[in-house]
Amino acid sequence: MLAISKRGFHEGLSLAWTLGKIVFPITVAVTILQYTPIFPWLIDFVAPLMGLIGLPGEAAMPLVLGNALNLYAAIGAIVSFEFTVKEVFIMAMMLSFSHNLFIESALASRVGVSWWLISGIRIALALISAITINLVWQGGSDMAQYGLISSPAVELETWSAIILYGVKTATIAVIQLSLIILPLMIAMQFFRELGWMSAMSNLLAPFTRFLGMKENTSFTMVTGLTIGLAFGAGVMIQAVEEDGVTKKDMMLALIFLVTCHAVIEDTVVFIPLGIPVWPLLLIRFTLAVLLTLLVSFGFKLVEKRRRNIQYEH
After folding, report:
1. Lower CB count within 10 Å: N or C terminus of the chain?
2. Contact present, 143 and 56 (Cβ < 8 Å)
3. Domain tally for the chain?
4. Complete DSSP assignment for 4-40
């Protein structure tokens, strides 16, 4: 047992270092960006586009913050303004798909899938869902009731204070990542060496096969669905290296998870905003299944055509 724990801990340290080299510089850069003239310029640039998806100009602030940072930064911005239930629901739907865009997409791209493809899928889903909700849902005109949440603000006046705050934020992010990755990798080592991984794969085999993937992607799917894309990326990287997960299966798993990940946290976090959260979860899961099936069908067509060409030759 101790030997298994040591091997898992070693794997976790190596993985935490790999992910930390991505998380740290991006977090520092984005955190500092908030305090530069570029950030308000970016919000002013995006604001006129808000009307196309049924949102007022003020919605640019939470959307930019959510995509650049995380859901909590976006929620802090949302409660600073008065929005209707429909407007908050549209923002929640968009942010469910495309929050923390730089870090999560960069981490996920470590498995060999293009950063631009991952980001493009997330942004496209966010825009399509917003436009659809705006056109289809005629209700939600009441003002949203935010409950007992507040918007904490950090006032920094000097560049040294801003840079120090960015480094501090990035350091905390890496520590949090490591504290999750280390026990996760130890647990994964036990799952492998004690045969539990096979049992889990067999349990989820019907669902993974339905989506066009082999059974050895099951642990990756469970991890991404429960603890999120950023943390699940560690399992994805190790799965590619050690579990023999093919690039095709990993791409399918990644497409599913960029659409629907951290389903508990990313759903519950919106409850205090006074919006219906069950439709939020249902839409994400349904789109994830449909999109993954569509891409899987495309892979099958390509493979079939390739076999036919080889047969003709």
Report:
1. C
2. no
3. 1
4. HHHHHHHHHHHHHHHHHHHHHHHHHHHHHHTTSTHHH
5, two tokens:
């724990």
156 or 258: which carries more pLDDT confidence?
258
Minimal CA–CA distance to 172: which of 309, 72, 311, 292?
A: 72
Return the sign of the alpha-carbon dihedral for residues 25, 235, 246, 212. negative
Query: Per-residue DSSP letters for 218-284?
Result: HHHHHHHHHH-HHHHHHHHHHHHHHS---HHHHHHHHHHHHHS-STTHHHHTTGGGT---HHHHHHH
Give the separation between CA 50 and CA 26, rounded to whole angstroms: 26
In angstroms, the CA 53 to CA 5 distance is: 50
Q: What is the C-alpha radius of gyration for the chain, rounded to an integer number of angstroms? A: 21
**Cross-strand bridge partners of residue 84:** 143
Enter the pTM of the model: 0.79
**What range does the domain containing 26 cover?**
2-312
Q: Which tens digits make up the pLDDT trace of 98-137? A: 998 888 888 777 777 788 888 999 999 999 999 999 999 9
